[in-house]
Amino acid sequence: MKRLCSTDPGFEQRIRQLNRSYDPNPEVVQSVRQIRAEVRQGGDAALVAVSNRYSAVPITREDLELKAKPKPASAAVKAALQAAVRNVEKFYKGQIPRSWSGRNAEGAQVGENYQPLDRVGIYVPGGTAPLLSTAVMTITLARVAGVREIVACTPAPADPALHYAIRFCGATEIYQVGGAQAVAALAYGTQTIRPVQKIFGPGNAYVTEAKRQVFGQVGIDLLPGPSEIAVLADRTANAACVAADLLAQAEHGPGSQIYLVSPDRVLIEEVAAEIERQMAGLGRQQYLRETLNLGCHLIQVKNLAQGVEIIEGIAPEHLSLACKGGASIAKSIRNCGGIFIGEYSPVAAGDYAAGPSHELPTGGAGKAFSGLMIQEFFRRTSIVAYDRKALAKIRRTVETLAGVEGMGAHAASVAVRFAPSVRPSQPASRQRKAAAPRRPVAARKKGRKG
Q1: What pTM did the predictor assign?
Q2: Range list of H helices, 126-189
Q3: Choosing from 173, 274, 317, 359, which is the catalytic residue?
Q4: CATH topology of domain 26-222+375-380
Q5: Which pLDDT value is given to residue 441?
């Protein structure tokens, strides 16, 4: 654990060093570039070869697609998945974007059309733990959005409970392949895996870098990396609860960052002691110890206001407010992925079941990016429809701006519609009436009664 205090020499400089941004390791960049090229050129054969190069469990081409029905989950797992998915569905159904149409100042029709993507890829980590929660927090959104083809990739062999969760949440295809090679297969396609339009989901450094490298070939959601949590606490905080929240994110392992920010030195020491006490009874000791040694920061500040300022600079994935006035402080926070207010709002509740997706920005990206939204599963198309009268009102504006830019063809494309040689088009109803053949006069008289 690293301790920092606002009265220490060089405190501000050390705090600035905590303000991170995504900066990929050059070795990871090169490795992913090679994997991406191999899969793009070699298809299934390369995908299997790369997977076997890095995995202790070899696979064949026949193992790639998981077509078999999942084994039934226990009653407890089924009930847990149902409860979690129900909350996620309720949270996001009200956020589905709707197409709309209106009139601008000149009377032209303007609007937006929203259509769900046709085919998306979702990476579900399963290497160090079968993350059923990721299936809930990503695949469910795609299904609620109306995506027709939801392609899930997870490392082989797929854990039976994870297999069940992926299907339960709505995946239409499942492939047993992980790492950067899975991202490459989703982006470029192979003989077995057809390419997708957009890739979602968290992963390790290689998965994150692969998503960065294929951006443009496909869309991506975020570049979520190792887990993060910051806890802003005062003397009213429960040290045991604070320690438990910190350990919950620490157990994700390599690269995870945990921060306790408090003006109360006694509380900081109580939390440090609780971390050691609670950790003795937990699993995943290797991951916990690595995070505590490399990524645990106990920061004593002058007051909560200074704590907020420091947290805004870190822009953590998760922020727990274990202090008086937490609800008020939450309204002022700009830079973080998700906020958890009060003693009975553990971050784990958000990770698994509260409703908002747990796929959140990390590594300082919370300063510019938001967590996963259902809008990410839609295409937006703008609509513009002028008639002659409306265009005449805006003609001078367009021609003036185009003239300043030196874009003569743009200006001419408006002016030509008002040239004497161009006849104004008529509404369809008037065109049909004008085109209808007239009956001879004699026939019209013959048809009259009386």
Answers
A1: 0.88
A2: 132-145, 160-169, 179-188
A3: 317
A4: Rossmann fold (3.40.50)
A5: 47
